[in-house]
Amino acid sequence: MVESNYIKGDRAYLLNATPGRYIAVAAYYSTNPCQLTPHYTTFFSQEVVTRTEVSADPGTIAFMGDYVVNQSMDLTNPDDAQIRFIPRIDPNAFRGLGGTKEEIVKAVVTAAITAALTREGRMYYSGLLGEGHRDRRAEETFLKKALDDLREGGWAGIIQQRIDALRSAQ
């Protein structure tokens, strides 16, 4: 598991990634600890996970896509991806579980009740695909924003190479 290491606006980057295959499996948001529930995790459905698969090659930039993921508080029927990744992403909350669907559902419901009663803790959501775009136009839009986001980090040349490759493939 590898966390994004740079976020700008609604874009998450994994900079200097080891070459290989990557998928997005969850999103995590933490608020001020003084707020009611300071930690929120959305576990993506199998459909979202599958659509985000990308290969990262040395000296390149890869685009997973532009997605709208709808959150649902109902994690009582987790799919295969959620069953696989929930205990791996938050092992402390699921310590001692065997990873069965029933054990995960019980832990998620217990966490929700605890968060509601104590006004602290963690909330878990199911992330369902609302919209997804991974076409040339979406990638070009992303790359233009990435050029601004990452210009000072030395990424401009790599990003511009990808923009040029997309334009020459038209």
Can you walk me through this structure?
This protein has helices spanning 46-51, 80-89, 101-118, 136-150, 156-168; strands at 6-8, 11-13, 20-22, 26-30, 39-44, 54-56, 66-72, 122-133. The longest helix has 18 residues, at 101-118. The strands form three sheets. Strands 4-5-8-7 form a four-stranded mixed beta sheet. It has a two-stranded antiparallel ribbon with strand order 1-2. It has 170 residues and is of the alpha+beta class. The radius of gyration is 18 Å and the shape is elongated. 36% of the residues lie in helices and 25% in strands. It starts with 5 loop residues before the first strand and ends with a helix.
